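User: My collaborator sent over this chain with a note saying "see what the structure looks like." That's all I know about it. Can you take a look?
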Amino acid sequence: MPRPSVEAERREQILLAACQVMAEVGLRALRVGDVAKRAGTSHGTVHYYFATKRDLVHAAFAFNFQRSLDRRRPILDAAGDPRSRLRAFVDSYLPGGDPDTALAWRVWIELWNEALREPDLQELNERVYGEWRRVVAGIVRDGQDRGQFRDGDAVETANLLISMIDGLAIQVLLGSRNMTAERMRASCDTFLRGLEARPPAA
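Assistant: Without extra context I'll predict from the sequence alone. Here is the result:
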């Protein structure tokens, strides 16, 4: 039996490969053999870690979320002011030149599509969005406490921002001529400027 550290590394390789294959061919066309080939391992090794394709796919979606969160951890844990943190957080989601971000977006889209018919994936989506909502709302509250953001419901603000990012990013990924990554950034900047507290009247 492989050592625990080797098992964890191999499992991660398989999950990353599953995300890569899913992003390229879609969930419905994903085959365990293709994942094994991409991971540089055997079909049997994949099934050692994941009994079924369904188990593999569900684990890959959860892995994709955790990987996205880990990449943004330095932004979320930074001691900088909330305006800078929120802007950096939004910028990190622009589906532009970063291949990891583009990969993650394509996996998200596959998750949403499949979750229309899969209750377990609906629960995963609920958990993921609950976490993003908590993170963004926390930054907004911090900004409100410091007088940088206008007063209001921080959770509602988080919902509006997250849903705007999702909707615009899908258009960018679909190659819309009217919604490029640059226009997405401009739209997000407009939203963020609208959050800023107004200076007191003279």
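A starting point for your reply to your collaborator: The chain is about 75% helix and 0% strand.
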